[in-house]
Amino acid sequence: MSTVALIDDHESVRLGLEAACLREGGERVVFSGGTVKEYLTWRATSAEPPVDVVVLDLTLGDGTTVTENVARLVADGASVVIHSVADRPASVREALAAGAAGVVSKSSALGDVLDAIRTVARGEALNNVEWASAVDGDREFADAQLSTREREVLRLYAAGLPLKAVAERLGVAYSTAKENITRIRVKYVEVGRPAPTKVDLLRRAMEDGIVESDGAPSGE
């Protein structure tokens, strides 16, 4: 019997899924809560092993991002199924990029949600309509169309250099480097991948191969 954690800030959704799991008898819900932090705290205090599958809402009300939540859960040892309204492909793609095993819509029948949980718990790929629509055309989605200079600025800035040092390294004015960062942020917003902070810019740069996964500038 696989173990399941339900993380959704809508209690009614959690109660419905928990009742379905109990009724079917194939999955044991060992945690139900509104945030990833609550789940990880429960893990630490209970000394329970990671669950087989976490069913995670795409957007929680605690201000966390889907990338943060999925990455923390995967690092803790659980597989993650995103359970959300499937009309936000950009956020769904972000979840998949962060390591989610798949996505199932909240409009799906409970039986389909349980099938998704079982599939992922067996270590099998989850292939459904929501998954296909999320990854379809992913490269077009990922391409923010950065210029060569914008990529240079992002490569150095995301890797940790202060903007002033970036300008000096590239031999441009500070105002020019700052304008480049502004344009980069605008371009990422336009393709559904906002990067309001420097940490977010680092994530985008890693996703696009501009810097290495350890944060080092690509090619240096």
Automatic annotation (TrEMBL):
The modification 4-aspartylphosphate is found at residue 57. Keywords: DNA-binding, Phosphoprotein, Sigma factor, Transcription, Transcription regulation. PROSITE patterns: RESPONSE_REGULATORY (PS50110). It holds the Pfam family Response_reg. The keyword Secreted does not apply. Residues 3-121 form the Response regulatory domain. Belongs to the sigma-70 factor family. ECF subfamily. This is Response regulator transcription factor. It comes from Microbacterium commune.
